[in-house]
Amino acid sequence: MITAEKIFKSFGTCTVLNGINLAIGAGSTIGLAGPSGSGKSTLLRCIQGLESPDSGRISREGYPGFMFQDFQLFPHMTVWDNILYAPRVRKLFPRAYLEAKADRLLRHLAIGQCKDRYPTNLSGGQKQRVALARTLILGPDILLCDEPTSGLDVAATGDVVALLKSIQNEETTIVVASHNLDFLVQISNRIILLKNGSIGADIVPQELEDPIVHLRGLCD
Ligand SMILES: Nc1ncnc2c1ncn2[C@@H]1O[C@H](COP(=O)(O)OP(=O)(O)OP(=O)(O)O)[C@@H](O)[C@H]1O
Ligand SMILES: [Mg+2]
């Protein structure tokens, strides 16, 4: 469960979030759409606590995990060590369990062949998927993903769709910011469109005949 009440956030003279109210039930997958600069990343960062709203209140229940738009992989670690670093440091799970889970994530995301490589030797799409695996290894109750498919081709996007669907359950709340409306429609129970600092639309894609056309019309 995530609630945001009257969230305001400005950078200098630019008001990015202009009184956002939001209630997200546990177990739902919310797509955040909106033009570039509309505040999707800022809202996700406020939910995670990486950024503080100027005013308003955010509350969330459960352990959150964040997948960054610019990956933020450790350059001096292999893919395998990037994925296992945080749970190893925090001694969260037994080693065999972690390694089996890391293997499964690598396989699901079709990046098993990249296991021993360093981030500089990965494509943008491969880095994207390592960043997602690194977040998922911690088993977050709330998964916040910023543009998890940017730079991915159709097949790799399909892998991300399948993986997100495989972790959808009654306890896990997922919020995904993306420009890819087709992707958002495939994974979301609800899509929120940010526009000029406010919620411009809040739709259930399954209830609309053509949600993509509907959202595109509202984006223009
Ligand atoms: N730390 C910051 N300092 C100054 N301005 C910022 C900062 N973070 C974001 N902004 C500005 O806030 C606005 C919203 O940015 P944000 O990254 O949230 O948009 P977005 O919807 O995620 O865009 P995109 O689709 O391009 O990722 C932009 O005008 C951006 O330049
Ligand atoms: Mg962004």
Give the termini separation: 31 Å
The amount of helix comes to 25-40%
Our count of domains comes out at 2
Strand order of the largest sheet: 5-6-7-3-8-9
Within CATH, the superfamily of the largest domain carries the name P-loop containing nucleotide triphosphate hydrolases
Continuous helix count: 7
CATH topology of the largest domain: Rossmann fold
CATH class group of the largest domain: Alpha Beta
In percent, how much strand structure appears in the residues? 25-35%
Major sheet, described briefly? Answer: 6 strands, mixed
Radius of gyration: 17 Å
Q: Which structural category fits the helices and strands?
A: alpha/beta
Description:
This protein is an alpha/beta fold. The chain folds into two domains: about 1-65 and about 140-150 and about 170-220, 3-Layer(aba) Sandwich (Rossmann fold); about 75-140, no CATH class. It has seven helices and nine strands. A six-stranded mixed β-sheet has the order 5-6-7-3-8-9, sandwiched between helices. Helix 2 runs antiparallel to helix 3 and helix 2 packs parallel to helix 4. The longest helix is centred in the middle third of the chain and has 14 residues, at about 95-110. It is globular, with a radius of gyration of 17 Å. It starts with a strand and ends with a helix. About 40% of the residues are buried. The site of adenosine-5'-triphosphate has 13 residues, from strand 2 and helix 1.
